[in-house]
Specification:
Helices cover about 85% and strands about 0% of the residues. The chain is an all-alpha fold. It comes from Paenibacillus wenxiniae. This is DUF4231 domain-containing protein.
Length: about 240
């Protein structure tokens, strides 16, 4: 790409701004109902953690400890239903109402990620000339974004793997020490395990959106440009 470095960086920043700020997940897919549900889920999670904290202070085998354990499990089930059922339905309805030009279920199989990818691709394709990208240089841009993604991932994964290797044995030791303290504690450990599993999912999402966010965004841009390249080839 025979572009001055300043212009090159501006084009790159403009593309990233379009796809991930103007067309961010929250701006495209979420509405007020989705935000209310996310707030409710956060409230339930905090409540469950408070309940567990109280339970750990109670005598082992007490009825109240068992009741609080059941409340904790019910809370986690409620969060799971909200995350897996209610939130996708809210987003699906929002897409159908706001993006009527798209046949959501037929074209994307109710997949939010596929829809967002397609919507971003269409928007960038319509504005392609604005970014000085065409069939003659699109391969160079694809290679550029792929290389940036790989370099960032390699530099970020090493400390994450080291941290995991340190924490995993500590968790195993905690379980071994507390498993012999009665059924009440075992129930609490089971609830904690469920919470930790969900926390791991949230941490993975958090990592994807923070430490690995930039690398994944570069990779997504490369994939979008590949799809645009295919579209350009089909029109020739």
């Amino acid at each position: 790409m025979n572009l001055p470095s300043k212009k090159f960086m501006k084009i790159e920043n403009d593309i990233m701004g379009l796809l991930f700020k103007k067309l961010s997940y929250s701006k495209v897919l979420l509405n007020s109902s989705a935000y209310w549900l996310l707030g409710f889920m956060l409230f339930v999670i905090i409540t469950v953690l408070v309940v567990l904290g109280i339970s750990l202070q109670l005598p082992t085998h007490s009825k109240l400890q068992l009741i609080l354990g059941i409340v904790g499990i019910a809370g986690e089930i409620l969060v799971a239903i909200s995350l897996l059922k209610w939130l996708p339905n809210i987003i699906k309805k929002h897409i159908k109402l706001k993006y009527v030009a798209y046949n959501y279920e037929q074209d994307f199989g109710s997949s939010q990620d596929k829809f967002l990818f397609g919507y971003r691709m269409d928007t960038l394709l319509n504005d392609l000339s604005t970014y000085s990208i065409d069939s003659s240089n699109i391969d160079n841009w694809i290679e550029h974004f792929e290389n940036k993604s790989e370099r960032l991932k390699l530099s970020l994964w090493k400390p994450i793997l080291i941290t995991t290797a340190i924490l995993f044995p500590m968790w195993n030791e905690f379980i071994a020490i507390n498993m012999s303290k009665g059924w009440g504690v075992r129930l609490l450990l089971f609830i904690i395990a469920i919470i930790l599993a969900m926390v791991c999912v949230y941490i993975n999402i958090l990592l994807e959106r923070t430490l690995l966010s930039k690398a994944n965004k570069y990779s997504q841009v490369a994939d979008i440009l590949k799809a645009i390249k295919q579209e350009l080839n089909n029109t020739i």
